[in-house]
Amino acid sequence: MEYGIMSVIPILILIVGIIVTKRLQEMLILSVFVSALLLYGTGFFTGFIELLYMAMASDTFQFLVLIIFGFGAMIAIFEKSGSLLGFGSTLARFATTPKKSLLTTWFLGLIIFIDDYLNALAVSSSMRSITDKKLVPREHLAYTVNATGACICVLVPFTSWSAFAVGVVNDYNLGFLDYVAAIPFMFYPLAAVIIALLLAVGLLPKVGLMKKAYERVEQGGPTMPEEKGSAIVKATINTDVKKSSPLNFIIPIIVLVIVMMYFDNDLIHGIIAALVVQAIMYISQRIMTPTQFMTNFGEGLTTMTTLAFIILLALALGEGNRELGLSEYMIEVFTVFISPQLLPLIAFLACGFIAFITGNFWALIVLVAPIFMPLSFEMGVNPSLMIAAIMSGVALGSQACFYSDAIFMTSAGTGVSPVLQVRTIMPYVVLGVIIATLLFLGAGFIF
After folding, report:
1. What is the pLDDT of residues 98-111, one digit of tens each?
2. Which parts pass through the membrane (predicted)?
């Protein structure tokens, strides 16, 4: 059955509902319910459960849940071991002012580039106590972490994102060098990273909710926003523990990255290896007993249960969107009128909009590549420019979607809810979109 414009209804309900109510969890449930109603009619109740089953059975859900539970356990153990305090003390030597603390966060985001999940959780968990002490609102920390997540992962050709994209374009006789050639044309992620830097050093004004966050802190309020009904656990550093060597943080992270790279960028392998190293290091140093280690491990898991439920709902909505044919409909709408000069711009805006409303990123690359890559060959458009347009759109969606995994991971690390994150960063996202739009428009005529 062709649903056409009806496929947009669940997403519209979600977006409008979030804007009006500021509540993500309830709006996700309602949107999944409406998807089931459209798909299954009178059998909507069973259909609703079926969508949940489909989401739970997906490799994506299993992968994400293992990651967030694994990182939740790692972060809790890091905190209780005192290693985060030790690593934070080392970073604090450089982060002596609010600006320098944000610059340190930004540089860490560039350094930890191999995976956006690792980036979001490692950077936020190691920097939040420092930025708190320097009276930097958590909203700004969350923005800096988010802006150097997926955007850096698409700009560096040695990450899980770029490896996946290269695998997709291989079907069109393109490869690694073509991806590298596309990097200078990835205008949105480049703009997003630069905007985050300029905001950190004070060369861009603080506007909207970011400005209000700073006013709250300047008036003696907390760095952590007080959000009524927020579904995201407020992440805090336990200051009752004794500070230990920063190596107790650095070594497990290094092991995580090495093992991850060895096993074809599989983050699960890296997390498990890092947890084993944590156990060996902390128990041998008598920082904690085996019983305490497992207790802290369990506490870390429980902090992520709400986030896991939200991800389940988001993926269930994604299953509903797929069954409704939302992505196909949106691509059909956006590709009605195309000229060679406008193709890169249209690809960027179409991919960004679809990624933003569907929350699909890697899957979207697979979906749009068979449309835009052949079009680029047929119309004589530089294929590297087309790769850049697709990856820019996907990075935009990952950074700004209410229920993207990048937003969820940043929430887990900073304690700022997904809705507040997106509302806070939106002015800067729009600025990046404007810059990228102008550059893609120009590139379409020049290259």
Report:
1. 999 999 999 988 88
2. 5-21, 27-49, 61-78, 103-122, 143-169, 181-204, 247-263, 269-288, 300-318, 345-373, 385-405, 425-446
